[in-house]
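Title: Prediction job returns without error message
Component: structure pipeline
Severity: low
Priority: P3
Assignee: unassigned

Description:
Job completed but the reporter wants confirmation the result is attached to the right record. Sequence as submitted:
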Amino acid sequence: MKPGHFGADDAAELPLHGCTVVDLSSGIASAYCSRLLRDGGAHVVKVEAPQGDPLRRWSASGAGIPADRDGALFAYLSGGKHSVVADPARRADLELVGTLLAGADVVVWSPGSPVAELPALAPATIRHAHPHTIVTAVTAFGLDSPWADRPATEFTLQAWSGGIIGLGRGDPDRPPVHVGGRIGEWFAGAHACAATLISRARCAGSDTGELVDLSMLETQILGLTYFPVTFHDALGRPFRTRRGRTVPGVATAADGLVSVGCGTAQQWFDLCAIVGHPEWIDQDTDLTITERALKHAEEIEAWFAAQPVDAIRALATAFRVPHGLVADGANAPLLDHHAERGAFVTDPAGFLRPAAPFRGAPPLLRPPAPAPRLGEHTDHYRHRPPARVATSGRAAPDPLPLRGMRVLDVTTFWAGPSCTHVLAMLGAEVVHVESATRPDGTRLIAGVPAGEDRWWERSPIFAGLNTGKKSITLDWSDERGRALLRRLAATCDVVVENYTPRVMEQIGLDHDVYRALRPDGIMVRMPGFGLTGPWRDNPAFAYVIEDTSGITALTGHSDANPVQPYSIGDPNAGIHALVALLLALEHRRTTGRGVLVEAAMVEAALSVAAEQVVEYSAYGILLRHQGNRGPAAAPQNLYRCAGADEFGGRDRWVAVAVETDAHWQSLRKAIGDPAWAASTDLDTAAGRRAHHDEIDAELAAWCAERTDEEVVETLWPAGVPVAPVRQPHRQGDLPPLIARGFFETVHHPVLPPARYSTLPARFSAGPARWHRAPAPLLGEHTAEILTGLGVSRAELSELEAAGVIGGSPDTTGRN
């Protein structure tokens, strides 16, 4: 796949050719969903009210947009779509919308548009009137939620999810800090696209659609927290990381910022050698790696401050310590790796934008196209509405459309397993390959003492990511193990791997080998930085991906270095790889041919961090980290409340986000119309932004006298977006998650019964349950799988005696 290659210019070659999508939505999440569908070959018709989608006038920096032009972000999200204007007050326009819906295969819906808010165009009503259609609704809490009518923003959803406080982000002496860049909206959009493609797979072969009800709260739980409910239920304690500096993290070097990670014991040992203190390796072994790094923070930071960035990166590369440059809207397109891979292209509107979140051979995506002018295609569709071809077949969607499919899962940690986990929930037989000497990394990070019985089976994180899979142990450092892996691959419809490229090449299972074994097979490769480029062999953890994509640059308090989110980089890669895989399956369903998917983690991250590059390229304005403020709401911040948290500290906060003038008037009234809020300067968003510091001081004083529950009970019923900053292990208590069955109780052979998260969408055609089996024990299915390949019992015994299969971390040493 050549650098910058997007896909086929002819949509007939693409997976979603012939699929018509009617987009009744507004906002980033649903716009990104329908853009991904368009790029995959769908024909997207965007229906707008006469005043147009608000994104047409949007600039995160407040840059002035000429009246005769649209905003750059709108152009990025809407390129290649068609625009139809419908006035909600005109019968003829509503009849046109009805005609469009009758010809649609998919409808994407979200609240906010005057057209979408019409009762006749509610998702359930559309679904009833057009039973052949897949209707994907994107809302804050879900259509069927007890909080369906409560106001929320991406910022307050981060608070509800526990994602603001759960992973220890930020200085302990300051408020916790949210992940910037409205990342939750982009992540929800990718999930909405995946859910739509899942429904399309479920409905294939029938003339029946379904309602797909996606909750942005649930997507944020999956992207910003790390299975905290499962962890709490299974181990009887919260997965809690206290706020503190990440050392080194984003560090100040002699000539700029550089990021260096230290997440494992080996990385700590290597860091000690890099900074010239090998004696630290054998000291304070009773402390965690984080605690040991913090103890020596001043010396480590002083060493970094004396070194140039290039020297630090050279040493980190030599020691294979995860590292990267801190990308932002100005420098991201200039970084050598992104430039060599063609990770950015020029939009038809003239600004730079990310090329694509993944690549395919044959192509899965088509290149950029101009965004439509408001109403550009209205007359066309009045005379030539879309017509769909009815299909015959079964009467109802198949809740488990991937049953009968075998997937070879050569993944570890979070990004890869999160992709293959969905395949298992959809009915595929997913065979997860591990070895006793190299088990999946999530088995080792739960903090379970090595002296406990079968400690490697007690990780709630591994359990949460791998329900329904099978596990085999196979030592691929041995040629006999590599040969067995190839024999297994020949029986698999799909192979997914997320190691650096050299690993698959060394074990003899790159795409050329797999294609020879299985010409119709799909291989999804998920290296951190792609299969080519200067950084191709660099190890990549979530935080490095966040750094090198620009997500980190928008996170943190404005008077300090940005901080790594330490979360979204992995699951964002996983959901984009899933989108790519579902497109590849669609391609194979219609052509019978296999596909190579290159789903580089960093390019998925560049796509959801796009706004800052788009903004800088289009307007010359660099977006920066602003603490808990944001571009869409003013005031927006966290405010400390009265009382102690459940751990005895003064760490109770509420998130408030005033996005509209109506929100402001509601806030004023709810807090008693104090004199300070009466100024007419505050009646507009611009005025409130200009006086943000003064408003913060007043709201902080008001909240300090009340508990977080009292603040929420006062402001939320009044219509103000507000949320307590939840501890993540309390997610399971939230009424919408209980009502929607987001958590399912799973019984595990070693861990106690616990609640496990599911998919963030409810599908009207079921299934009633997603988790049909617990995560596998290490090597639980080795004999079953290998005997199915023709390996005899005697051969199994020989392989086990040689250590090619079997074993446990207790007998091989803990990594």
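Comment from assignee: result matches the submitted record. The first helix runs from residue 28 to 39.
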